[in-house]
Design a protein that fits this description.
single chain; five-stranded parallel sheet; 7 strands; Rossmann fold; 154 residues; 16% strand; alpha/beta
């Protein structure tokens, strides 16, 4: 795996994140789980319920659907255009997933909290993808509604 010659910025401009989340419609979720206790399940449920077309990706051949959504066993198996690849896999796998996202023509590569790799980000950005790492789209979608309550007692 090549070393990145530039550090990727993890402190994203809120407008950059908002523009991505407004523009994408179809999200391939790599590492989607049918286990209701897993973070990926909650994110899949929330994004699906608010209107994103979620395509769960999980290599388990026995897993056929999650919440009524067809499970794909690889990104290459998906038979329609994908706007964003959302990654719930260990950061060590992010570079390979970046290569796959480029190969399928995705527009955005998004690494969930704890998923980051500057070399993967550089590879994807050099191929024209927008990249977000170490963030959760579910959290980012609701961030504008969080207001600090400085009047609360500690």
């Amino acid at each position: 795996m090549p070393e990145a010659d530039v550090d990727h910025i993890y402190d994203y401009d809120p407008k950059y994140l908002a523009d991505i989340l407004k523009s994408v419609k179809t999200i391939a979720m790599v590492g989607a789980s049918a286990d209701k206790t897993k973070f990926s399940y909650g994110v899949l449920r929330q994004l699906s319920e608010i209107g994103y077309d979620i395509l769960p990706v999980n290599p388990n051949p026995r897993l056929e659907e999650i919440r009524g959504l067809k499970v794909y066993h690889s990104l290459e198996e998906i038979d329609k255009p994908i706007d964003m690849v959302d990654v719930f896999r260990p950061k060590e796998e992010f570079y390979g997933i970046a290569e796959q996202a480029i190969a399928i023509g995705a527009k955005v590569l998004w690494g969930q909290i704890g998923v980051y790799d500057d070399a993967a980000a550089k590879l994807a950005e050099d191929a024209g993808l927008k990249v977000v790492m170490n963030r959760c789209p579910k959290i980012e979608l609701f961030r504008p509604f969080w207001k600090p309550r400085l009047d609360l007692a500690i």
